[in-house]
Amino acid sequence: MIIQTFLFVLFAAVFAAFIRKQYNYLRWTMFTLILVFLSYLLYSIYGKWDYSETVALMKIGATSISFNIRITPLGWFFAFFTTLLNAVISLFSIVKNRDEDAERGIAFLWMVLSALNIGIFLASDFITLFIFWELMTVVSYFIISPGWTKSFRSVNYYFILSLIGAYAMLAAIWLLKTDPMVSTFDIMTSVRQLFIMWEINQAKAFAIVLLFLTAFFSKSALMPFHIWPAEAHAEAPDDFSAYLSGIMIKYGLYGVLLVIVPLFTFITHFSETTRMINGIPLLSYLIAWIGAITSVVATFLAINSNDMKRLAAYSTVGNIGYAVTGIFILSSMGVAGGIFHIVNHAVFKSAIFISLAAVKFRTHEREMHRLGGLAYKMPVTFMTFLLGIIAAAGIPPLSGYASKWMIYQSLLSSRFPFLTVMIFISSTGAFMYLFRALHSVFLGQLPRKFDDVKEVPFLMQLPMYIIMLVMVGTGIAPGLILKPINTVISSMGLMPVRVTFTDMYSILSRVDALAVFLVFAASFGVAFILYLIGNKRKHVEPLDNYTAGQDPKEFGLTREMYHFAYDFYEPFRVMFKPFERINTSAFYDRMERAFNEMGRSFAALYRFSVRNAVLFFIIGITAIIIYGWLI
Amino acid sequence: MNMNNSILLIAVPLALAFAAPLFSMLGAIFNRFVLFAGILFEFIFAGYLMKRVLADGAGIAVIGGWKPPFGINLQISYLPLFFLLIIYFVMIIASLMFAARKSKKDDSKLVAAFLLFVTGMSGVILTGDIFNMFVFFEILTIATIILIAAKGKPMAMRGAIKYSILSSIASAFFLLSIAFIYGTLGTLNIAEIALMFPQIAPLTATFIFIMFFGALLAELEMFPFNMWAPDSYEGSYSFVNVLLSSAASLTAVYAFIRIAFTGMGYTASGYIRPLVPFDGGLAIVFIGALTAIIGEISALSSRNIKRMLAFSSIGQMGLIMTGVGIGSETSIGAALILLINLALSKALLFLSTGAMLKGSDDRGREALTGIAYRDKLFPVLFILGAAGTVGVPFTLGFYGKLFIAQSLISAGGFYFILLLLVFAGAVIELFYYFRVIHSMYIKKEFKRELDIKMLYYIAGAVLVGAVLFFIFNPSSAGQFTSPAVRDIFERAEYIGTVLGTGVLK
Questions:
Q1: Alpha helix locations (H) across A178-307?
Q2: A556: which residues sit within 8 A by CB, 6+ positions away?
Q3: Residue A4 burial by CB count (10 A; 0-12/13-18/19+): exposed, middle or buried?
């Protein structure tokens, strides 16, 4: 049934590609409908754990590979939530792509991608996972850069790093499978066998784990792969950025939860030979540190960026860092908090990217210092962005608070004070760059050229309303998400966390999210009452406010000059200038140049004359003869 | 079992080749039709023979009543017919592409050369005699030189001269190894060589193997013996490119497998290796992996698309030889799958680039900028070909690469480092193919007039049909290759068919 669904989506995508351009809205409405249908289908298969489908692919020699799909709690959870979110994002695309040029190809590929998305989460053996993984990489290439020259460079960062990851995964898969201790491609079984291998042949198991980690971390942009989101998320089509940042970057974390976390849980409980720190394996501890460092570095990079989409992309990397730190603590609280943060991040980052896309849809600007004061012009967009950054910063009544609280609790209760400090640093930094984005885009002075900017059409506002509702809803009742997460983590062999719909418990404390919300609501209410009973107010232009009542025209000042947004955190940047020398993208650029140089010198060999061709022939033969004679 | 009519596979194209100048008197179209009909006959006849082999088992054709090992015999079994069917299929495409070109004065000569090429190739693949194989190789080489040089541009001449000189050195090596075999064993029949090869002194075996290996390396496009390839591909017509990459290299792989494995090989614990004092398999794998990475990395920095495709062919051949060299059942199966894939996808790539670049002076990526908004079909053909070559999942290239990776890892040790080379090559390959596809879809006005002939569409449709067939029935590729792999491993059966079962017992 699931494989037929994939084929159905594929045919629908092909059909959509042939719809004529003037019926663009039809194409994208079809996309939304398909996604709603897929969400319904996933909803209807909830609870049918261990339902599976198999198609034989090929058999050579003793090895046969097949295509295996199975519904597991973890996979279902990710598949359902991502498809639902994708459906919401696609509502935004209907209007956004009405007059776009590249829409045809994007629609086709994105439809295929949403089927692949489900496939990644439902794959039950490594070969199937790899097939979907590689197809996803290949397909997303042409959505990120649908024939645009300016995004070509960016997409290549993404593409090459993802491919390195994919081939690392392939190497890991075969290293695992060809070992005599491992009998099958099935993920669950072979992870168990990998644990046995860890006990007997630790070096090899360690290599396999490292290769898997390379694959997953390159997709999820952890150090040292943390630069590609800033390139690819920023240059992708605006609505696809939300998908990239909200959903696609999570595949790596899903892989981690699928392969690495169960293995480490086994090691924590049963291993006798592994070095432990605070009750978790040393490797796990180091990875938690990688997560923490990634979040700090990404936060600093976000603070210094002036492009709003780059800022949001770095913020994504930072949040992935939190989630990884939480997950690799390996306590129930940590893993649950990590998964919860993944879900929350998907929602609020979609909110942020959609509102930025709405801003760009109206203004065609991405540099933040050229924007400003849009709050009155685009109130719904502003509200979405505001709620999004409140959630991202982890301020109480919204969803981000609950997951960050859980990650802190897990770190503290497992006694990792330094990791907690790192997470605190990046959390504080998140306030800095998020406020900066809010100020530069929506507050401050409205440039004159945007005087007649209007709010986006209703169909674009609709997904914003939905996402706002979700953010507030999960903020009030985190149990809505945490209860399914409990099913997931108990299927991974961890204790479920203690939670009701509104209350969360840890060893150290308890939070009633509803009470928190009521307190906030009440304080807002009090402020609003004060606002109503206060004196009569006079509307003042923002510019008058800035010049303390003097007429700005006397000084020849314009609104643009009073929008203090360029190089917002200059003192901060100067303070951390020495670190700018550590430039990862420069390193990748050097690598690229080196490869090109190498290629040119090899290709030059082939340009030589006949004489040299013969010379090379003789040299080659001599080398073989020497090899043959010496050995 | 007697299958003497199989000689027609060699005789028909040879006769047609000599008759080609006569046909040209009847008109230009007639000549092309004869070429197409000839190759179609070959394809159908090979299919008929294959049917008989599948029904009744392998057989030989005995020439002139001289029973092997005294006379020359043709080997009609699954493996040669498997190769021939792939090659004839691609040649049908090439002949369609040839028929689509404007009528010129040298038509009849090219038809003759083409048919000679078919003759040589069928001969190399079918013959059971090593000296006979050498003779057919010479025919093949000379036909190739003519075909490469046909365009008459400086680059074509350059490529043809490089090829002719390198291949004549290679022929000398081939002859030398044959002389040594004849001198020590007193026979030229491959089956008898296979029977007696273990008696040769180790040092002589080394010498014979290296000479023979060196002879084929140029044709196999292995580094550093492939200096002729990029110039020849760049300088020649598109249909010649298809012949070079999808037919000539397949023939060389067949010759290599036949002599190194059937003639000089031995099987042990699931591996087949040449019987030489040093690790011959490792030497092949090492050269293969080196070629793979160097081919891909050189393609990365080639501006000219045809040159890039040439380097890509080199890289693919490297990968295939890696699979052949490992010598396990899985790896040879994977190599054969990659061969089918190479034949189909490289034909698609050369077909589509040939169509898209026609009439353009600029042969770089820039010449294709924005072409997808003018012609919708041929960029898609290019994408299909590229997807097969780089091994996007569900194409044959994917399965081939998957299993080659598996066999490299299960071979263990030093092979794992070679796996890294192969993977690095694969990443680079994906990158530069996607770069070209990306530039096809750049939104920019496409100025050049495109003039694509109807026959190109037909040829493209046939190839796409074949590619889609394998995408939707991947297991059929496994079913096609597994008897071929069995044929390679069952050396005793080969000897038995040729020399009669009595010899073995």
A1: 187-200, 202-220, 228-235, 238-246, 251-255, 261-270, 282-303
A2: none
A3: exposed
Tell me the two tokens of residue B453: 């002939």
Neighbouring C-beta atoms of residue B179, cutoff 10 Å? 13
**DSSP states of B361-375:** S--SGGGGTTGGGT-
pLDDT at B505: 33
Nearest to B302 by CA among A145, A155, A601, A589: A601
ipTM: 0.91
HEC per residue, B94-135: HHHHHHHCCCCCCHHHHHHHHHHHHHHHHHHHHECEHHHHHH
Q: Using the beta-carbon criterion (under 8 Å), do B166 and A624 form an inter-chain contact?
A: no
Please state, in angstroms and rounded to a whole number, the distance separating the CA atoms of residues B133 and B189: 10
Q: Of A465-469, A528-532, B105-109, where does mean pLDDT reach its minimum?
A: B105-109
Q: Supply the Cα-derived Rg of chain B in whole angstroms.
A: 22
Residue-wise pLDDT tens digits, A210-235? 999 999 999 888 888 888 888 888 88
Q: Note whether A109 and A370 are within 8 A (CB).
A: no
Contact B434 A159 (CB under 8 A): yes
Report pTM.
Answer: 0.92
Q: Which of B210, B419, B435 minimises the CB distance to A171?
A: B419
Per CB-CB distance under 8 Å, the chain B contacts of A627 are 278, 283
Tokens for B478, please give them: 């496994």
Cβ contact, residue pair A170, B294, below 8 Å: no
Q: Which amino acid is at A379?
A: P
3-state class of B152 per DSSP?
coil
Token couple for A505? 């418990």
Beta-bridged to residue A510, according to DSSP, are: A505
Q: Do A149 and B297 touch (CB under 8 A)?
A: no
Distance from the Cα of A289 to chain B's closest Cα (Å) equals: 28
Question: Who contacts A579 (Cβ-Cβ below 8 Å, separation ≥6)?
Answer: A300
pLDDT tier at B142, thresholds 50, 70, 90: very high
Cα four-point dihedral sign B234, B235, B237, B243? negative
**Which residues 6+ apart lie within 8 Å of B287 measured at CB?**
A624, B217, B222, B223, B318, B321, B325
Cα A354 from Cα A362, distance rounded (Å):
12
Pair B407, B487: CB distance under 8 Å: no
| Site of tokens 């031995």 | B266
DSSP conformational letter for B412: -
Q: For residues A494 and A287, what is the distance between their CA atoms, to the nearest angstrom?
A: 19
Whole-angstrom distance, CA of residue B237 vs CA of residue B150: 8
Phi, psi of A54 (to 5 degrees): -140, 140
Of A146, A160, A171, which has the smallest distance from its Cβ to B423's Cβ?
A: A171
Question: Any idea what DSSP says for residue A67?
Answer: E
Alpha-carbon gap, residue B344 to A588, rounded angstroms: 35
Exposed (0-12), middle (13-18) or buried (19+): which is B220, by Cβ within 10 Å?
A: buried
Cα–Cα distance for residue pair B55/B345, rounded to 1 Å: 31
Q: B73: which strand partners?
A: B62
DSSP B11-28: HHHHHHHHHHHHHHHT-H
Q: Are strands A510-512 and A280-281 parallel, antiparallel or unpaired?
A: unpaired
CA distances from B459 to B90, B147, B342, B350, B355 (A): 10, 20, 16, 12, 11
Half-sphere exposure (Cβ direction) of B269: Cα atoms closer than 13 Å: 2
- Find, among A28, A29, A33, A25, the residue nearest to A8 by Cα: A33
The single-letter code of the amino acid at A319 is N
CA distance linking residue B139 with residue B143, whole number of Å: 6
